Amino acid sequence: MPLIILGVIFAVALGIYWIFSSRAIAEEDKKIENERRTKAAGKTAGNSDSDGSDNVIFLSDDLEREKRRHKKRP
User: Fold this and answer.
1) pLDDT for position 44
2) FRET label pair with 5: which of 20, 34, 62, 64, CA 20 to 30 Å apart?
3) Dihedral sign from CA coordinates of 42, 46, 49, 54
4) Cα–Cα distances in Å, from 8 out to 4, 11, 13, 18, 73?
5) The pLDDT of residue 19
6) pTM of structure
7) Residue closest to 43 by CA, chosen among 34, 52, 55
8) Contact between 33 and 42 (Cβ < 8 Å)
9) pLDDT, tens digit, for every residue of 20-62?
10) How far apart are CA 12 and CA 56, in angstroms?
């Protein structure tokens, strides 16, 4: 009898976990989709970049490190 009670508790807990995890995944999907839409709308309306690449800003230390890495390549 105690084993049946433990099984029922486990099944209920598993169901609750599944409900909460599916809600969290759905919210994350909505968030990603909204970010994708705003990014696409912002690029078409505000930016004049034709190639669609984002600008990358290197700090001076990063730039020097990248120069050294590039020189080391065969």
Assistant:
1) 53
2) 20
3) negative
4) 6, 5, 9, 15, 62
5) 93
6) 0.45
7) 52
8) no
9) 999 988 888 888 888 888 887 776 545 555 555 677 776 677 7
10) 50
